[in-house]
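Z., the sequence and structure:
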Amino acid sequence: MFWVYVIWNDEHGKYYVGQTDDIKKRLKQHNIPQNSFSRYTKRFSGGIHEEEFASRKEAVIRERELKSGKGRDWLKRNLLPRAK
């Protein structure tokens, strides 16, 4: 299985969209200060949204959708307001 996930920071109004085949491991990595990619996301404790897919191809397509203009609008309308 593959996942697309969104983590956000309520305080700063920022979010991060990613995809992985091991959601628990990946979210743990975001919180390890020694990892170079966690410098930006280690402060993202506002919430987590996950979507599951059968293939990496489907997950990558959804990740790209969420990173597009329409996807960012969808996140702001449907997901991020609930975090507050």
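The chain has a mean pLDDT of 83. Residues 4 and 42 are 18 Å apart (CA to CA).

Let me know what you think.
H.
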